[in-house]
## 1
Amino acid sequence: MPVSAVKGIGTHTCARLEKLGIASLFDILIHIPLRYEDRTRITPLDRLSVGERALTQGVVESVELVQGRRHSAICRIGEAGGASLNLRFFHYTARQLSCLSPGVQLRCFGEVRPGPFGPEMVHPEYHLLTQDLSAGLDRHLTATYPTTDGVRQQTLRALAREGLRRIDEGLAVLSDRLDADAKPTPAHPNLREALRLLHRPAPMEEPLLPAARERLAFEELLAQRLGLMRLRAETRQHGAPPLRLPLSLADDFRAGLPFPLTAAQQRVNAEIERDLGRERPMMRLLQGDVGSGKTVVAARAALTAVASGWQVAVMAPTELLAEQHFANISVWLAPLGVQTALLLGRFKGQQRIDRLEQIRTGDVGVIIGTHALFQREVRFDRLGLVIIDEQHRFGVHQRLALRDKGNREGLFPHQLIMTATPIPRTRAMVDYADLDFSIIDELPPGRTAVKTTATPGERRGEVIARIADWVARGRQAYWVCTLIDESELLQCEAAENTAQLLRDTLPGVRVGLLHGRLKGGDKDAVMQQFKQRELDLLVSTTVIEVGVDVPNAGLMIIENAERFGLAQLHQLRGRVGRGPGESFCVLLYQSPLSQTARQRLDILRRSHDGFEIAEKDWELRGSGELLGTRQTGVAGFRTAELPRDGGLLPRVAEVCDRLMREDPTAPELLIRRWVGQSMHYAEV
Ligand code: ADP
Ligand code: MG
């Protein structure tokens, strides 16, 4: 039931509630209070202590208007024993004051603070008592909710009350069976009880609140996974073009590569080939550490599609990376007669028109680009395979949008999603449950582990001297400026300043600068110069995070490393260690380091395995470290929080899979309630 249908809730309030993610009564019920206030007991005036939030009561003794820095009205209440309290109002109406005549009894709730005339409460909530002073005490704790401008606690409380009332009437509850399934252990409360506890706990029930919250988190995670599993089931009912790679072409492809494929690459190739040959869309997530060689796997899949008469869209997160993919893939595929083309946002005018036309008519087989591939004007002739690189930047919606583009005569394209950010196993259970997994767990031969050190910022000077030395030996280096949670503009400025500083300090070193605000062409120029050794040192923001491949660059300095996600640091570090000889990564940090920060940098110093790093990072974060969401890029939950609730996931998966087996339609209500709006099933 929408909140707009509740009496007294106008369109204005509705709009504001929407900001809090509250559209229905169910939404308010899963809007978990921040804290509770105890208004079940009255604290006598003589027992109040400063700093406490309390419910108290007394008889109005006087009302005075006080002139001060701000006008205020002070209503003094007292009790027989002589204790008194001032209620101070900065905003008041004449009518309000006239009700507060001496002798009237009132009850109020607020925080006790020291005031110029003794203890006071500023703008307490209050009401007048008519007769019996002990009448009408709350029996429950009063919830305080997270809120936003213009939504009062009273409104939220009233809505929660209404929601609970409807549940009491039997509306919106789950079937007994589903209710029993949607909890971590039989001892956890059922939904109705959990909601009642969270919004109206009795004072004695406070210890039960964590279990109640966990009950909701479990249900939410379950709904999330159910949603993805259903998406999976539905997608697998669609038809897809079976794609096959003729043996001779496979041989030619292999023979044209400058290296033999690793065993892991071959295994993954086979997994993909098997999926592509089916008449159902492949939905596969390919995980492989930085530098493990995913591009060549993508190229082979693309070849498979083109050889079967279908087009391929390859989507990269940045133009730089799209261009690099284009450079690699076109070199591998051109000798086999495959037309590859780039489509970038910066293509304008005739160039763009021509490109769109080639895509529409099917002249080109493989189209490589960025988000620009999503645009409405981009029409494919026969899209049979979608390859998305670096999945962490593309959400479920985009995944669906691109797939729908390919819908042709009821046939949907296959999907291959590639990521260098390994996803911890538990996390994958809710975020990627709609996908099958392939893993490249082996690096091409000849890679050396990057020697990683952590150095405090005070020793920058030494680090800079080291660069001079390194460059003198004919090698190249990266200097990565990271400023998290700052605007892109600030990041670019930081990089500019650092570049200037390094130019000044290192006169013999050719310093280049790369950041997000450079125009595409300029970025290219800088990258090209660096590749061709016309630059020795590349100062950049994290735009080089993905994909850049310059083997001679074997030294990387990363600033503010302590503030970055491990996965991202590992990605950055993956840019070095590709060439001959030893390579190094210096993690510059600002001291002092917190204990967790030290542990995290230690993980990175010791491990070079992206999967291990991801799991360790996850464990550390599960132990309470809060980190920006920037690196996860995954939609947040309403009541659950990962990794805190990660322990629930194995059981969530078990229940989910059983429900799907027994009766896939039964959990419909769960899915609709928790994730219905965020996944567009209607289009599926
Ligand atoms: P990523 O998985 O990070 O996308 P890339 O596909 O960019 O990795 O590959 C990294 C580098 O390794 C590239 O220069 C690529 O040509 C090279 N490479 C890929 N596979 C092999 C292999 N089997 N043997 C040697 N080099 C390889
Ligand atoms: Mg890559």
Note: The mean pLDDT is 86.
## 2
Amino acid sequence: MVILRCRFITINLAPIRPSHFQSHKILHTTRFFRTPNLISTPRITSSSLPTTRSISDEARFARSVRFIPPGVEIEELTDDMVLPGSNIVIGPFAGHSQIKQVEFVKSSARARDCPKDDLPEIAILGRSNVGKSSLINCLVRKKEVALTSKKPGKTQLINHFLVNKSWYIVDLPGYGFAKVSDAAKTDWSAFTKGYFLNRDTLVCVLLLIDASVPPQKIDLDCANWLGRNNVPLTFVFTKCDKMKAAKGKRPDENIKAFQQIIRENFKQHPPWILTSSVSGLGRDELLLHMSQLRNYWDQ
Ligand code: GDP
């Protein structure tokens, strides 16, 4: 299981070396489908292709930059299978994605206090002020759903929201409060890391990245930590409507810079998607992506 999770993330925190792409090991995709609980494996990576197969430059490029879910053969890939504003290919596991019903279930102080009903969950994480509450409210189309305490030093909790009575959105405490004490920072670390490392029903983490500011070390540290620990993640760029930056670079330049750094640290680029809670950009696409992750995990 751990090995397969690694394959999904295909993280390698060392700089990419050509050898990563040259050593193609055979890994039959059917194996993924028989393995429940492993949404961490859907990515068909360069290492999953038989050595004998010759692929076009285009396919090679697609393979290195796109998120290709199970059930999609790289040779069959067409542009209309890629979600607009993302590198995410939609495959046969994508399904019903709209949120009809959402209810707050509980706030937990530790991973072991979280709901124990084995439903799949997708956690949402990001720096304070990244737009996490706005995104959650936009996804569920309700105001004031996200309950995370925003005040530094206050108890930070894991909030579970049951969606369509079948899966959870999990609102995790924001990190990187400017005024937080070192002690509170340590608390965040221990507490949230415990959740990531112990939560078996965690399908994926949506790591929110503010597109209106240049890449932040704290976000990269967080991404690298998740990568090193084989936690499946999707980068969700927020505030993409802010096409004119008040100061500094524009969101598209910030995103490009962030992706460049990720490319240097990750063997394969994790899924990413552009969103705006103001304009609704990326909302339906993100929900569809979440549905394919969940459905694959759930089969
Ligand atoms: P949180 O601390 O991560 O929960 O962030 P919030 O959702 O409270 O948002 C922080 C600030 O960013 C607020 O002033 C929001 O109005 C603003 N914001 C959030 N999402 C967007 C967005 O998509 N576009 C723009 N322009 N502003 C946003």
Note: Confidence is low (pLDDT under 50) at residues 1-54.
## 3
Amino acid sequence: MPPVELLKDIYWVGAIDWNLRDFHGYSVDRGTSYNAFLVMDDKITLFDTVKKDFKGDLLKNIRKIIDPTKIDYLVVNHVEMDHSSLVPEIAGLVQPEKIFCSEMGKKNLLAHFHTENWPYEVVKTGDSISLGKRTVQFMETRMLHWPDSMFSYIPGDRLLISSDAFGQHMATTERFDDEVDLSLLLGHAAKYYANIILPYSHLVQKLLAQVKEINLAVDMIAPDHGLIWRKNPGKILECYDEWSQQKSKLKALVIYDTMWHSTEMMAQAIMEGLVEEGVSTQSFDLAVNHRSDIITEVLDAGALIIGSSTLNNGMLPRMADLLHYMRGLRPANKIGAAFGSYGWSGEAVKLINTIMEEMKFRVLDPGIRVPYVPTEDDLQKCVDLGRKVAKALHEHV
Ligand code: FEO
């Protein structure tokens, strides 16, 4: 993908990763992009680099604009390897006068690359530098989503280079939000939020309050992944506000894994009860659904009814995987209930309840355990559980 001029003398020079399908456990079914930005000013400045495998793309793009050795400054907004693994080679080639990063950025660059002799220039929130015609202001965004993360803001262009925040894992030839379908883009942005930013929602709320307080004027948001928000920067800010509040909708998810279809029969009966009480409900069989797609739906669901057969005194392995992943992402404000069939021990329901309690779900019921194959009476109890959750959800939202 050739460079694209975002604003006068400000270029996207990143790379598109069409073939990526797994991002440390997050299924990226549309690939991703690694966005880097080159600002041509008295001090030529490169904001972030790309994943090491894409060195050729980055250098090819920069060379279409300028000899890379002419770059003066390198800004490292974030040290995760998808943006920084090329920093050592770029720093070696460019020999930048300064490398700007947060205090934690310096610490993490040292921890990754063990290079004491780089020309580090540590910046903190409120610091600004002059590139000549432009200034760049820095805003630390600790734990959004790493300790080193920061934003770079160019007030003259009202451009926010936002690192991972507001990104999407979506490989496209288009570079701007107004060049693709907005609902598709927002869907990928929601998936990205749910799988990466969700645990730090309280910090997103603080950051948005800070942005409001300083009256930050933003016409364009350029994240390090996916499309650049040119037409709808306000929309993605609004979505982050909504997602980070973790408000629940009148929406339930019935998530299960089943050994010989008994737990599946229970799931179907629970759904019947939920739907009868007017709750929008989605069913997720873990045999065919990826954890990161389920988490996307967890984002605004008010109730999660989770079921597993018992296997070897525990829950089925795919359910353990999902709950482990979900617990790390810390979804809040959920109603929970558990169910499952068993043969002779039946621990799965209790184990699911324990994890839901750890996640501070409001667990409504001890859950339903059924030996081997449910009877009509058992299935009626499942319908009743669905109704009970639905009624609680109506009061909850
Ligand atoms: Fe895109 Fe946290 O790296």
Note: The mean pLDDT is 97.
